[in-house]
Write a structure and sequence with these properties.
alpha+beta
């Protein structure tokens, strides 16, 4: 892949790519944190995804709206050799097309209120929706049912993060994410992993949060799916 293509795929303007001369490329505002907020940082992450069309393809900047659809999905970064220019004109007839967002890993994307895509991650999506049905005793679960619930629950679309205490952490499933102020943590194997766009930090014991108010970021519906055994993909920095 040539330098311009590599930078464009990573979500930076291709015209700024080069061989070390001139100004460094500025990252696009398309990286999502566990709160569901969208930032301009260099790290790309393991997954892409979208919430519909929320960018101006001429300026490659976000519009004021942060979603156009209740279906917020998690997609593969590579699928069937397809190429897109992030925040460019990738739709039919030169239209904008959906806005590419990027996540550190699936755990982060789930906390932000996204769920697996049925097009590029079909088996994972079927597994997720199936466990959603099992969690809520729905005989024939469908993605729109799931999306409607998530749209009411996730913080970035107006949901309220539940307040919890350190004593509640052992009862949460692996892959749940919590916040201590603006700092966020992913729960795994009885520990809390500090989150950043670059990866996870050294694990902390739950006792480190004693007496500190916490907020539960992962939507309640997704927590129920995790509780049914859905195993999200973790960034390598989380360990094995």
């Amino acid at each position: 892949m040539n330098p311009a293509a590599a930078v464009a795929e990573a979500g930076m303007p291709a015209k700024a790519a080069g061989t070390g001369q001139g100004k460094a490329a500025m990252p696009l505002q398309n990286r999502v944190d566990p709160f569901g907020a969208i930032h301009a940082v260099p790290e790309r992450g393991l997954f892409t995804g979208n919430r519909g069309v929320i960018h101006d393809p001429d300026t490659r900047t976000l519009l004021k709206r942060r979603w156009t659809l209740p279906a917020w999905i998690i997609c593969q970064c590579e699928f069937q050799g397809r190429k897109r220019e992030p925040m460019g004109r990738n739709g039919p007839g030169g239209k904008a097309g959906w806005t590419e967002l990027f996540f550190l890993d699936e755990v982060t994307a789930l906390a932000a209120g996204h769920r697996p895509c049925f097009f590029c991650r079909r088996e994972r999506a079927r597994d997720f929706v199936g466990r959603f049905g099992a969690a809520f005793a729905i005989e024939t679960p469908r993605a729109p049912m799931l999306d409607a619930r998530l749209h009411k629950e996730r913080a970035a679309s107006g949901g309220q993060a539940a307040e919890i205490a350190a004593a509640d952490l052992p009862g949460l499933p692996d892959g749940a994410m919590v916040a201590d102020g603006r700092e966020t943590y992913a729960l795994r194997a009885g520990t809390a992993l500090p989150w950043s766009f670059a990866g996870y930090g050294a694990p902390l014991g739950f006792e480190a949060f004693s007496g500190r108010p916490l907020r539960l970021l992962t939507p309640a519906t997704t927590l129920a799916v995790l509780g049914q055994g859905y195993a999200p993909v973790w960034h390598s920095s989380a360990g094995t």
